[in-house]
């Protein structure tokens, strides 16, 4: 089962880990997809805002991202560039610690978990690592995130994946809609629109 074209817009309500909201807009481009969005939240008493514009190629591999952030500590701006083969520049400087990563994953976003499932095209029972360039919400620092996806049996027209990120000692079942966007991200977010 393949995914349908994403909607023009989608939204998520963040819960448990933080209180907040995310809105994303999807715009097809000649060679892929542009995703623009914003997340606002309160987490452990700290407020933050993260805005993003992410460029994906036709295989849903991240090719670039412009990210802005605002918290009580100030305003930040970040530019990520990727060659599609696992090599990255962070604000124009080589980032060898990200070698092999094909996706950007924003700590602030439920939407970015769509990228690896689209790109990997796993069949039921398949497992794949999906290391990502992980961008923190409060300071926009970039680190490598080792994560793993296992596609489990579909439920109606919804694909489901066992997801884990060992560094956070976190695992859950992610449920995706027909377009491959997260509907339910336990302890993180639920789809609102």
From TrEMBL:
Source superkingdom: Bacteria
Pfam families linked to this entry: Glycolipid_bind
Alphabetical list of InterPro entries matching this protein: Glycolipid-bd_prot_put
Name of this chain's protein: Glycolipid-binding domain-containing protein
Species: Streptosporangium oxazolinicum
Upper taxonomic lineage: Bacteria, Bacillati, Actinomycetota, Actinomycetes, Streptosporangiales
């Amino acid at each position: 089962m393949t995914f349908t074209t994403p909607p023009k817009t989608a939204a998520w309500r963040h819960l448990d880990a933080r209180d907040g909201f995310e809105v994303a807009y999807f715009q097809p481009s000649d060679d892929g997809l542009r995703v623009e969005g914003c997340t606002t939240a309160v987490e452990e008493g700290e407020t933050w805002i993260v805005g993003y514009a992410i460029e994906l190629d036709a295989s849903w591999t991240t090719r670039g991202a412009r990210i802005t952030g605002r918290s009580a500590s100030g305003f930040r701006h970040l530019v990520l560039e990727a060659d599609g083969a696992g090599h990255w520049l962070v604000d124009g400087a080589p980032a060898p610690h990200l070698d092999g990563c094909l996706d950007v994953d924003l700590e602030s976003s439920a939407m970015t978990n769509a990228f690896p499932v689209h790109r990997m095209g796993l069949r039921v029972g398949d497992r794949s690592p999906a290391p990502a360039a992980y961008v923190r919400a409060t300071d926009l620092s970039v680190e490598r995130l080792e994560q793993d996806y296992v596609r489990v049996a579909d439920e109606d027209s919804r694909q489901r994946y066992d997801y884990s990120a060992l560094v956070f000692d976190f695992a859950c079942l992610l449920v995706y809609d027909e377009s491959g966007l997260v509907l339910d991200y336990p302890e993180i977010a639920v789809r609102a629109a």
